[in-house]
Amino acid sequence: QVRLQESGPGLVKPSQTLSLTCTVSGASITANYLYWTWIRQPPGKGLEWIGRIAYSGSTDYSPSLKNRTSISWDTPKNQFTLQLNSVTPEDTAVYYCARAPGRSSAADYWGQGAQVTVSS
What we know:
single chain; 120 residues; seven-stranded mixed sheet; four-stranded antiparallel sheet
């Protein structure tokens, strides 16, 4: 069974870097055609796609967040990581990691979500 688990600080100060790690079990993050994605949901708003890292190691980012976002992976640990720089209170959200079984596929496995609050 595929499982994803987010981990990281729940409170980040404005202008600092938000860093979250997703630990994957039950599937290899380098397995062909899989895409590992970060998505967030601010309070009272809908889901927002942040970006993804593909089985090849290539990355794609939301245009609106591209300048502040970096997604990387640690293949021996089967983990992938989100870094969001220069955060503001508007970055407060529940952050999810998820797996998509193809480039144009919807996510089929999700982590439980991690609340991150940006506040001084």
